[in-house]
Write a structure and sequence with these properties.
With 177 residues, the protein is of the alpha+beta class. 28% of the residues lie in helices and 33% in strands. Strands 1-2-3-4-5-7-6 form a 7-stranded mixed beta sheet, sandwiched between helices. The model has no long low-confidence stretch (mean pLDDT 92).
Length: 177
Amino acid sequence: MLLNPDVGHAMPARIDLRPPTALDQAEFLRLARTSRALHGTWVRAPTTPTQYVAYLRRMEQPGHQAFLVCLRTTQQIVGVVNLTHVVMGVFCSGYLGYYVFAGCERQGLMREGLKAVARHAFTALKLHRLEANIQPGNVASIALVRSCGFQREGYSPRYLKIGGRWRDHERWALRAS
């Protein structure tokens, strides 16, 4: 499944979105390992074959979808957007997790990727709401969601366990128009 990020855009996108596969493992792991300093305490991307296989299996579960953000011209992987814990019925909501790989940050590529995944969630999946939970010190991530139209809804002390520690998070949400 390749999503078309150009839908709803005035200009052609610079990225493509596609699901990760076993064939992406070597490139993904290399990028994740070289991005450890960039990711810091914000995220723990898979860095071993075992972790990558577990990630693929988790994203194959109902209510989860993973997208690689790739440069359209070269298909180089520049980042990841995960749509997880999708609940339908009266809730129609899901959670977003995302990260960029080192060397690809601050170029607007993840903004394109996040907006394309949001369009997919609101149009194809018919979701009403997307939520991103971000550690307060992650200024770049907060700027990213803000630039995509997300609004800060609250603060959750000790919300997620990352890197062995419970960390506070701000709740940011985007609702379908």
